[in-house]
Design brief:
Layout: H1 4-19, H2 26-33, H3 37-49, E1 53-56, E2 62-65, H4 74-81, H5 103-120, H6 124-129, E3 144-145, E4 152-153
Antiparallel strand pairs: 1-2, 3-4
Protein name: Transcriptional regulator
GO cellular component, one term: cytosol
GO molecular function, one term: DNA-binding transcription factor activity
């Protein structure tokens, strides 16, 4: 349903959210997310152009989120690299249909609307704080924030 670019962008942003507010290099992000570095560079460029991430050159520089993980939604990330396209009019161009979609295209648009809503309502912080036995992008136990500015603890299993 989603392009590889969206998958790679979400992986990169989840990693940056996990490391926030510290910047990461493209090499560090690529290694942590298992995304080819050349492809990741192009994805990060789109994220920079959409003001999702910010980059700083030099010592102590790197790539970091523009917003906090609590403020950044999954939808903002997706729309920065490959926006969800809703079906507003008949994709077949049938004059009798216009904005009155047939059952197939209505169902497809409903699914896209539900996905769009779910992503708009989900922040990066929620992804990182979800209680599951696995932590995003990690095989081993990981320390993470329990709340904004809170102490770090190992995730509960």
């Amino acid at each position: 349903m989603f392009s590889q670019t969206v998958e790679y962008a979400l992986r990169a942003i989840v990693h940056l959210a996990d490391q926030a507010p510290n910047p990461c290099t493209t090499e560090q992000i690529a290694k942590a997310t298992k995304v080819p570095q050349a492809y990741l560079s192009k994805v990060l460029q789109s994220l920079r152009q959409s003001s999702v991430v910010h980059s700083q050159r030099g010592i102590g520089g790197g790539i970091s989120l523009v917003k906090t993980p609590e403020e950044l939604s999954l939808l903002e990330v997706v729309n920065a690299v490959d926006p969800i396209c809703r079906i507003n009019t008949c994709p077949l161009g049938l004059k009798g249909h216009g904005a009155n979609l047939c059952p197939l295209h209505r169902k497809l648009d409903d699914a896209m609307r539900e996905t769009e809503t779910a992503f708009a309502e989900t922040t990066l912080a929620q992804i990182l704080l979800s209680s599951t036995s696995s932590y995003p992008l990690c095989n081993e136990p990981h320390e993470r924030l329990t709340q904004v500015g809170g102490p770090t603890i190992a995730p509960s299993n």
